[in-house]
Design brief:
The protein is mostly helical and about 300 residues long. The protein contains twelve helices and no strands.
């Protein structure tokens, strides 16, 4: 396969993944009225079923079972916990009118990744990366301060938790010795027993949402597709694209979510939020420019 074709396929796969993630709030808004814990449980259980089918079709079960032992299994237990925290906060925020905060969280995330790389992995930061992280940090402090003083109108902990949980999730997945499909499958299997137990409990208590109407049942089952498919598309894109290109693509989803929050869901943009978003976007622009410049420099010296 030639390089240009690989690049085109990678762009399509990456765009598909971030498009689904960007449209996810529209889907979750259809589930308003269903408790977020129940939505999360359905997301895990139906993802497990879908991933099981994929693993069987691709005949990967034995390879995944052989890889998921010892230290790898312990790390996947940690990554499963982190992604569960991320999903829990995300679902709660969407269902409770904090879509703007989720957008902010995923704008902050790549800058958190840079900071984690420096602090934990000992990676060196270029001057513009340091500036980008610093500007973003000021934005977070503005939002946090305004919220604590009662003028921010924002659940400041939502973007912070989303960014940190997903940032450290990425760190664990970076060092764990298993591929994307195998890691996601094992993580889902780890989370499935408590998720399934919760669904059995709420159904037995008569408070469960599943089984009441076909439309709602279909939406809950679709949670598995909405969870697993973009992650698989992303993994395929990552194998075909340069890291810098993939890094630039990731801003598409939170941008889409931002406009959905303001234009479709009518969430108000308060002064503190506007200041925060301007600072975060400035940090992201600095980071994107630095990534592009570094990638161009590598290409010229190759």
């Amino acid at each position: 396969m030639d390089a240009s074709r690989t690049q085109r396929e990678g762009l399509l796969l990456g765009f598909g993944a971030y498009l689904i993630w960007g449209l996810l709030p529209l889907y979750l808004k259809l589930l308003v009225g269903v408790p977020s814990a129940e939505v999360l449980a359905h997301r895990i259980v139906w993802s497990m079923l879908l991933l099981g089918i994929v693993v069987v079709v691709l005949r990967r079960a034995s390879a995944i079972r052989a890889a998921a032992t010892g230290r790898t299994l312990m790390l996947l237990g940690l990554s499963a916990t982190l992604i569960a925290v991320n999903w829990t906060v995300y679902i709660w925020a969407i269902l409770n009118g904090h879509v703007l905060e989720t957008s902010l969280g995923y704008f902050i995330n790549p800058l958190v990744n840079v900071a984690i790389g420096m602090a934990v992995l000992g990676e060196r930061m270029r001057p513009l990366q340091i500036a980008a992280v610093g500007v973003a940090l000021v934005g977070v402090l503005v939002l946090t301060g305004a919220s604590l003083l009662g003028g921010g109108g924002s659940a400041w902990w939502v973007p912070v938790t989303l960014a940190l949980a997903f940032g450290f999730y990425g760190l664990v997945r970076k060092v764990v010795a298993i591929d994307a499909l195998g890691g996601l499958t094992v993580e889902t299997l780890i989370l499935a027993p408590p998720a399934l137990a919760w669904l059995v409990y709420v159904e037995a208590a008569g408070t469960g949402a599943f089984g009441r109407e076909l439309r709602l049942d279909s939406l809950l089952v679709f949670a598995g597709v909405a969870t697993a498919v973009p992650l698989l598309l992303f993994a395929a894109a990552a194998r075909r694209l340069r890291y810098a290109t993939l890094g630039l693509l990731q801003y598409f989803a939170p941008t889409l979510v931002f406009f959905e929050a303001v234009l479709l869901f009518g969430e108000p943009l308060r002064t503190a939020q506007v200041v925060t978003f301007v600072l975060i976007w400035t940090g992201c622009a600095l980071y994107a420019f630095d990534s592009y410049r570094a990638a161009r420099g590598d290409k010229e010296t190759a």
